[in-house]
Write a structure and sequence with these properties.
By secondary structure, this protein is of the alpha+beta class. Helices cover 36% and strands 36% of the residues.
Length: 219
């Protein structure tokens, strides 16, 4: 799979660079043809002066420079896309932490995390069943800014063991009496990679797709 993605991105990069170079050459050819045609058809009694020719050549130089700059940017963009694709392909089979509200319970164990932009005097996580009913509230106390991992033992608030399956959770942080809703983070298995105009996307099964820029951790 990685080799396939690598070959595909390599071809894309080469194609982009070749296309950009071809466009630069085409621009130069068109400009020179127009200049030669203009000189051939000039009025012998009122020929082009050196200043006009120099001005038009300067315009050609400016246009060519801009085209070359655009070609360089396109090549860099293609290389970046290829690099991202290879990085994404290497994640297949690994577990990724991305923004999400899902938490899977299996044999009395479930893991997820919360991302705090600021410290919190109090952090509360509420786990809900498929119907949106709160089954367990976890008080995680004071926390520093950053990613806060937590575990759920599968018990509800009354101490009864919940059935294995997919649950959701929400989080609320409080700092100096002010409440906020931090980002919730879920784990998902990367089973494939999709390449599109927006770059490489990781497919995480029932977690949906996630961009590389949203990945917080790879296990």
């Amino acid at each position: 799979m990685v080799d396939s993605v690598q070959n595909s991105t390599s071809v894309t990069t080469q194609t982009s660079a070749s296309k950009a170079a071809s466009e630069v050459g085409a621009t130069q050819d068109r400009f020179l043809k127009l200049l030669v045609t203009q000189m051939k058809n000039q009025d012998p009694l009122n020929p082009l002066d050196n200043a006009q020719v120099t001005s038009q050549m300067a315009q050609l130089s400016t246009v060519t420079g801009i085209d070359k700059l655009n070609a360089t940017v396109q090549a860099l963009s293609a290389n970046m896309t290829a690099t991202q694709s290879l990085q994404a392909a290497s994640m297949i089979g690994h577990v990724a932490m991305v923004p999400g509200k899902q938490i899977d319970l299996f044999e009395g164990n479930a893991d997820a995390a919360v991302e705090l932009m600021n410290p919190a005097d109090k952090l509360t996580v509420t786990i809900e069943d498929a119907k949106g009913n709160a089954v367990r509230t976890l008080q995680l106390g004071a926390q520093d800014a950053g990613i806060v991992d937590f575990k759920w033992d599968g018990l509800d608030n009354s101490g009864t063991a919940m059935a294995d399956g997919n649950y959701k959770f929400i989080a609320q942080a409080e700092l100096s009496g002010k409440k906020s809703d931090p980002t919730t983070l879920s784990y998902g298995l990367v089973d494939s990679v999709t390449l599109n105009a927006d770059g490489a996307k990781l497919s995480l099964g029932n977690r949906g797709d996630a961009g590389l820029d949203t990945v917080r951790r790879i296990l």
